């Protein structure tokens, strides 16, 4: 099933990192290729701006959940993180710490996180600091892993052969539409509506209308909602999230048609670049003109088990 994060990110991380790292070997080649001229898009060469723009977009996505279901988010110039103890997961998304005080700030951050949860994934990005942050985290016993691919494309040329003649795509503009999106999205990700409740509440609170920068989209076949996604326009990046298709309707090009529609919407709103994260649909997005520019580098912090100390 093609998936743009992050509902799938939470579902995949629920088994914690020991299970997540299984099956990552096929992505190793892609990770190595991102350093090669032949496989990395020219507009990403020696330029981390698209990655940073998508990270800021990603942070905006998670800020939608703040204050609901006990979810805490924190964003300042040095750090950004979310603790949910459930969906949509626990993540540290920015670490820009001064080298002179990095040791104290890392320990303070871990102490603050430990008061809220028992574990979190810590993402490292090209612009994070200090430069030896990886070594400092390793010294503290954090384990490492490779996560999802971050893929990008420019919006000057959008494929015109990915439309589906029977698929009717519309944006969510009211509560009945959001309930239809919520139901179909949960089905597409193989979870329950109860588990997907934080997404429903986040988007309900955000509201609807042409001025919002967060829009949910639904594709209908014969009036049945069968494919869903979310578009966030922020920080010079069109971010695509939560792409899913109801199981009985997969393999018909519906997700491709929906992504193409989102790209067109972003271009009409004046955006020149789109980005997304994926763990299992690289080929789909490549067929839509996306190219891999980054692969998540993850560190995992977990609280000490009191039983192990006895």
TrEMBL record:
Statement: the UniProt record of this protein carries the keyword RNA-binding: no
Annotated protein name in UniProt: GNAT family N-acetyltransferase
Molecular-function GO term, any one: acyltransferase activity, transferring groups other than amino-acyl groups
Lineage: Bacteria, Bacillati, Chloroflexota, Caldilineae, Caldilineales
Domain N-acetyltransferase: 165-310
Keywords from the named record: Transferase
UniProt cross-references to Pfam families, sorted A to Z: Acetyltransf_1 (PF00583)
